[in-house]
Amino acid sequence: MSDPSSINGGSVVAMAGKNCVAIACDLRLGMQALTISNDFPKIFKFNDAYLGLTGLATDVATLSEVFRYKVNLYNLREERNIEPETFSNLVSSTLYEKRFGPYFVSPVVAGINSKTGNPYICGFDLIGCINFAQDFVVGGTASPQLFGMCESLWEPNLEPEDLFETISQALMNGVDRDAMSGWGVVVYVITKDKVVKRLLKTRQD
Question: What is the per-residue DSSP string for 131-154?
């Protein structure tokens, strides 16, 4: 296969709403067309920031531990939790360090700034170039389908429940059209005072 980041499949999407953000991913782990698992986590929590990682499964596992190590060091050194904006710069610099032999991942960051309460989302390419967004960012093998679904369904200033419905429909319909993604969806809806996690069933084929 020409693109290592598509070998294991998987997709992730983040959306901004009114004082809230949502991030969702599918649960499939595959080896090209062969499905190996339907409970492979792709979203990781780092204080107030949520990181969605899709791509080569070994790089996803490695990077999640690298970021946990670096965030713990940051918390000890700075004596405060890392903000999503700061965390996105940490992701960018970590990926850029390996630019000559990159991690084959397409990360997405979502979170709420603990001081301002503003929603924050961004995406990256595999060497760490940040793609800031006010509406949504996508990553993974279903990206073309997700762009179309998100463009159709997303609206400004969505309330948390409406945002959950929008991101769920976008991801579920997007992965239905991608053989490398699917087998269940997990959705996080994040506001300043709480985080709601929901598991959704999708087609199992």
Answer: EEESSEEEEETTHHHHHHHHHHH-
Q: Which amino acid is at 112?
A: I
Delineate the domains of the chain, giving CATH numbers in brackets: 4-200 (3.60.20.10)
DSSP state at residue 55: B
Q: Are strands 49-52 and 43-46 parallel, antiparallel or unpaired?
A: antiparallel
Question: What is residue 11's three-state secondary structure?
Answer: strand
Nearest to 93 by CA among 79, 81, 107: 107
Residue pair 30/11 in contact (Cβ under 8 Å)? The answer is no
**Per-residue pLDDT for the chain (205 aa), expressed as one digit of tens each?**
568 888 898 999 999 999 999 999 999 998 988 889 888 889 999 988 999 999 999 999 999 999 999 999 999 999 999 999 999 999 999 999 999 999 999 999 999 998 888 999 999 998 999 999 999 999 999 889 999 999 999 999 899 999 999 999 999 998 888 888 889 899 999 998 899 999 888 887 6
pTM: 0.91
Residue 109's H or E segment, with its range, is: strand 108-112
